[in-house]
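To illustrate the input format used throughout this study, we show a single complete record. The first block contains the structure-token representation of the backbone; no residue identities are included at this stage. The design step must infer an amino acid for every position from geometry alone.
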């Protein structure tokens, strides 16, 4: 009787497990592609909806990329269905190896794959990702029966909110962009032609920037920081400039952001430090006492594990042992990873490198953290200086920053000073140094010689340089 009872129970349990397995399989097949293990169209739409909800709270763009594998039909017809399946699984693995979150990938149809790019900032970032990471990974040759088969991957991109406000519209428009890319032979197209054109211009500019570094087209201009009372030079800030093939000076706003987003800022940043060191040595060779030179450091540079080592190697380019280079770093950048920033900046301070917090007053730094940061000066953002005269609030804020800095034994520099009235108010408020057009525009190293030698003619109060 017990055996009979156990046998009956076993049968019922087996039947239940079979139903559970079938139910789980049905649920899986409803959301995933059994061949590649990627999500299907239904699950992709759900992932896009989730990404859109999160993007609203983080002020991010969301992009949907739909790609097509060329030569898939050729593989199927020449080598058989098994080879075609192997190719699709290989493509899925290659996509997953480079996509920010592999769970955001999907297989839509036989040879169409899609992905949600949820960390999109500027659309150029998406284009760079497709060109520099995805395409090289996916388009590696596929080998079958000892033969290498070339793979090409064309893509269409739709970006929220410009190209659609919901998941269905974004997927549909990305597919439409893919169809246009296949028809025109382009590797990747955005849904809106004007966005594709703008990105093409940006990528062309990036290529020009890469050549500019090799052709030595970058130059440094220097803007003095002077004592508020004596107007004696206390230091200079190195500012990057680009003279293009036609001899035109390209405004920094047009290329600094691209240097950062493309990662070129690492090579260019090292060049800036080495150039500043050599310019200081050139001033010294003329019998001048070279001022300390401050260079700007970007978030990309500071985040590098070897930032301190690489900075010191570039700053000691002459081999003389003296490091006459300081850094300026924005307040908001420091707050991204305070503990890591403290450790790296402390290592620089041990080598005698000054550290200024740039654009102070515009970020969200904690006073507790500020007291721990190994900084040597604060720079008041130019937006406060511009309204210093007519705005009592700006005067109060500047006075507060100066008082806070002095309580921490830190000097204060005001940026963007253009009038004698601003200089007078800053002197009254106790600001230590001023920097701006009132003193001098940024100028090449050789043009700074007269100022450093004390030969520059005094400027009448209120007169701006030509």
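Output of the design step:
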């Amino acid at each position: 009787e017990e055996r009979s009872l156990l046998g009956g129970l076993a049968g019922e349990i087996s039947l239940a497990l079979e139903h559970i397995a079938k139910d789980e399989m049905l649920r899986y097949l409803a959301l995933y592609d059994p061949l590649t293990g990627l999500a299907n169209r239904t699950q992709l739409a759900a992932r896009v909806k989730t990404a859109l909800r999160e993007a609203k709270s983080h002020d991010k763009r969301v992009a949907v990329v739909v790609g097509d594998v060329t030569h898939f039909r050729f593989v199927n017809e020449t080598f058989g269905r098994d080879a075609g399946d192997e190719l699709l699984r290989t493509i899925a693995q290659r996509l997953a190896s480079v996509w920010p979150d592999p769970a955001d990938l999907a297989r839509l149809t036989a040879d169409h794959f899609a992905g949600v790019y949820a960390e999109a900032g500027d659309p150029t970032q998406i284009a760079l990702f497709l060109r520099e990471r995805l395409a090289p990974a996916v388009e590696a040759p596929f080998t079958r029966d000892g033969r290498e088969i070339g793979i090409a991957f064309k893509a269409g991109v739709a970006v929220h909110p410009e190209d659609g406000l919901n998941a269905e519209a974004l997927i549909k428009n990305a597919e439409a962009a893919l169809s246009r890319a296949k028809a025109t032979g382009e590797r990747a197209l955005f849904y809106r032609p004007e966005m594709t054109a703008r990105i093409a211009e940006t990528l062309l500019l990036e290529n020009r920037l890469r050549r500019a570094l090799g052709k030595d087209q970058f130059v440094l201009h220097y803007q003095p920081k002077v004592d508020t009372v004596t107007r004696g030079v206390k230091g200079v800030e190195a500012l990057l400039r680009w003279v293009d093939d036609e001899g035109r000076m390209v405004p920094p706003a047009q290329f600094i952001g691209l240097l950062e987003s493309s990662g070129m800022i690492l090579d260019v940043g090292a060049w800036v430090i080495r150039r500043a060191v050599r310019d200081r040595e050139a001033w010294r060779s003329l019998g001048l006492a070279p001022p300390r030179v401050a260079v700007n450091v970007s978030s990309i540079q500071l985040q590098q594990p070897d930032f301190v080592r690489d900075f010191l190697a570039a700053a000691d380019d002459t081999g003389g042992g003296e490091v006459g280079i300081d850094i300026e770093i924005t307040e908001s950048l420091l707050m991204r990873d305070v503990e890591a920033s403290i450790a790296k900046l402390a290592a620089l301070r041990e080598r005698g490198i000054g550290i200024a917090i740039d654009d102070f007053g515009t970020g969200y730094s904690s006073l507790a953290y500020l007291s721990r940061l190994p900084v040597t000066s604060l720079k008041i953002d130019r937006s406060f200086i511009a309204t210093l005269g007519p705005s009592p609030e700006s005067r109060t804020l500047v006075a507060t920053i100066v008082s806070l800095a002095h309580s921490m034994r830190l000097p204060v520099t005001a940026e963007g000073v253009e009038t004698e009235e601003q200089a007078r108010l800053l002197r009254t408020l106790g600001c230590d140094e001023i920097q701006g057009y009132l003193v001098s525009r940024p100028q090449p190293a050789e043009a700074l010689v007269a100022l450093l030698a004390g030969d520059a003619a005094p400027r009448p109060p209120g007169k701006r340089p030509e």
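Structural context for interpreting the output: Residues 295 and 381 are 16 Å apart (CA to CA). Residues 455-466 have pLDDT under 50 and may be disordered.
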